[in-house]
Amino acid sequence: MQAWRVHENGEPSEVMRLEEVPEPVPGEGQVLVKVRAANINFPDALLCRGQYQVRPPLPFTPGVEICAETEDGRRVMATAGLPHGGFAEYALADAAGMLPAPDSLDDAEAAALHIGYQTGWFGLHRRAHLQEGETLLVHAAAGGVGSAAVQLGKAAGAKVIGVVGGEAKARVARELGCDLVLDRRSDDIIARVKEATGGRGADVIYDPVGGDAYAKSVKCIAFEGRLLVVGFASGAIPTPALNHALVKNYSIVGLHWGLYNSKDPQAVLRCHQELTELAAKGAIKPLVSERVGLDGAAAAVQRVADGVTTGRVTVVPGEAAA
Predict the structure, then answer these.
(1) Which residue range(s) make up the domain with 237?
(2) CB contact at 8 A, 84 and 21
(3) Which of 24, 221, 232, 318 could form a disulfide linkage to 225, CB 3.0–4.6 angstroms apart?
(4) Backbone phi, then psi, for 156, in 5-degree steps?
């Protein structure tokens, strides 16, 4: 079979190689699945660079989020088991962690529903307890993780403010349903958020960026607001000023979705059921902006790493770029 493999750490476009390799052999609790679509996440780039918290042995195949077909013909969503990831014709998946792919979504959309939307759902509902009528501020609102949070926030009845970089991404954020879109390159984020909320600030802030985004967030968060720390796509991990959190009375809330698979797997199943229902109603739909064939995976991962994409970029083996 064909698979992209990383033999040394570095930029994805430089270290990912498309090779002919044997099909991986499942270990205990694993199954071999045929990859129908593999969604690209920012952590795939970090894996290539050797900067992710998980470091699979070299060589490895990246691609952690897949829609796949089991040997008995079931269409499933799964987290691929590294080092045999999803940027390949076949991958390994944990049998216990596989979820049925929603009939309302095609393969690429189903691949993109898993990690980003589960992260958004757990973040907004379980960790931040977002309420109808509250204001949700989403950084990187046109990206893969941010676009999921925008849709989930709107589905929950929140007013959603999206922060993006550039007019092209602003158009995408508006199409996603943001009530207000701010461009971090030209808008005074703090002043505009306060203006839009009558001086109150945002009740919940969804931050997958870190760095300057975090610094601005704490200056426009509401009394008893909740700031969700989702990731650090900017590469800068902020150091919270806890005296500031004390004085302004807001919460800094961490979110690591992967832990729920071991700590509370039933909650993951309940989340998937709710996401499936929302997708069936059309309340959420993954924004798949690019579909590339297997041969285009390395270049696509690099584009995601460089932050020039919107929505989700998905690898569909056997299909040319669309």
Answers:
(1) 120-258
(2) no
(3) 221
(4) -85, -5
At 155-174, the pLDDT tens digits run: 999 999 999 999 999 999 99
Dump the DSSP string for 228-256. EE---TTS------HHHHHHHT-EEEE--
Question: Using CA atoms, how far apart are residues 107 and 11, in angstroms rounded to an integer?
Answer: 27
- Structure tokens that stand for 224 in this block: 């008893």
- Count: domains in the chain: 2
In the predicted model, what is the mean pLDDT of residues 96-105?
95
Residues 101, 124: one domain?
A: no
- Specify the DSSP class assigned to residue 125: I
Average pLDDT over residues 257-286: 95
The H or E element containing residue 160 is strand 159-164
Pairing mode, strands 90-94 and 30-39: antiparallel
What separation in angstroms does the CA of 74 have from each of 36, 78, 99, 233, 315? 11, 12, 10, 34, 20
Quote the pTM value: 0.92
CB count, 10 Å around CB of 23? 15
- 163 lies in a domain? yes
Angle between the 167-176 and 144-155 helix axes, to the nearest 10 degrees? 30
Is 201 exposed, middle or buried, given 0-12, 13-18 or 19+ CB atoms closer than 10 A? buried
Judge contact between 87 and 2, C-beta under 8 A: no
60: in domain: yes
